[in-house]
Amino acid sequence: MSLFDWHTLSDEVWVRAVKRTLYHKKHRTMRNSAKGKNLGLLFFNSSLRTRTSMELAAHELGAHVTTLNVGQGVWGMEWQPDVKMDAGAAEHIKEAVGVLSRYYDALGVRVFAEFSDYERDKQEQRIKAVIDAATVPIVNLESAFYHPCQALGDAGTLASHFNGRTAGKTFMLTWAYHPKPLPMAVPNSALLTAARLGMNVVVARPEGYALDPDVMNVARSYAAARNASIIEVDDPDAGYENADIVYAKAWGGPMAYTDPEGEAITRAGLKEWRVTAPRMLRTNEAGFMHCLPVRRNVVVDDAVLDHPTSLHLDQAEFRLHAQKAVLELVWGL
Ligand code: CP
Predict the structure, then answer these.
(1) Of 85, 224, 320, 332, which is most buried with the most CB atoms under 10 A?
(2) Residue 266 near residue 191 (C-beta atoms within 8 A)
(3) Using an 8 Å Cβ cutoff, are 122 and 144 in contact?
């Protein structure tokens, strides 16, 4: 099976993946469970954690792995269907994925939001084109709207931090200023993860930066089924009281598609949306989370990131454990 995103899979599959993630955290060792399997990784965008942790996860399960970075020794790709390929791209995604499917037992693919058409990104046209062209399982290594590997790593981090008792804890997801308009995959996935773990979620974001209503509705359905709550606030000082976790992330929002210049001007006026030590002092000694990479003293102050309650390195470590669970899932190990 492919892993597009957890919200398309049952609670049973999700809970088992979280358990396997925690198992791999406890028992990190070389295994032979994936011996003979071959994993191909195709990156259309930069990465530090996803690439290295996925390579290591495959290696520690006994699989062989190859990583390809499009634009670095790999043919440029065409995505449009029914197109006359007389411009720059030498290879169509259909052939690229079709060929790699003949070589590998699964493919991990990272392809970010295009940021030109909101609905096209929301429909996840690129990762879905990959899944359609493949004859082997696809693992989404971050697409336009979802980052399921980060989601599972974060679930493992949270479950470990709270000794399995995440239900009823308060998870604050806060927008943060960033010099670039970043995609919404991580905040969407963080929101869905916290809601699925039964946490009470506070989404703090400026006016104009609301997350997609359909994603919010999926999160609300998880919360309702778990007697938890989801609220939104639009003040950079609100939402910290009683937070057990503060998860910071910058994202561009719909305005970055419809009015990029206006969005840049709006965003430039929102630099006070930063996680600071005085704000963290108002929490319930909250753990600080960020998926990384993070811009120090822009998104979050040194004093927060360097404080012992920061969980950002735990999150990065949990990516390794989570991706072993993902490979077990897609390969049925
Ligand atoms: N968090 C995350 O996906 O990191 P990379 O972009 O470095 O892979």
Answers:
(1) 320
(2) no
(3) yes
Q: Ligand 1 centroid vs 87 CA: distance in angstroms?
A: 31
Cα 47 to averaged position of ligand 1 atoms, centre (Å): 5
Nearest to 70 by CA among 38, 34, 96: 96
| Contact between 155 and 21 (Cβ < 8 Å) | yes
CB of 45 closer than 6 angstroms to any ligand 1 atom:
no
Question: Which pair of tokens denotes residue 219?
Answer: 């999160």
User: 133-159 as b/e, with b when 16 or more CB fall inside 10 Å?
Assistant: bbebbbbbbbbbbbbbbbbbbbbbbbb
- Check if the beta carbon of residue 175 is closer than 8 Å to that of residue 250: yes
> Which residue's C-alpha comes closest to atom 1 of ligand 1?
291
Identify the residue whose C-alpha is closest to ligand 1 atom 6. Answer: 47
Q: Which atom of ligand 1 is nearest to the CA of 292?
A: 1
CA 276-282-287 angle, to 5 degrees, is 70
Record the tokens describing residue 158, joined without a space. Answer: 């949270």
Q: pTM (2 decimals)?
A: 0.98
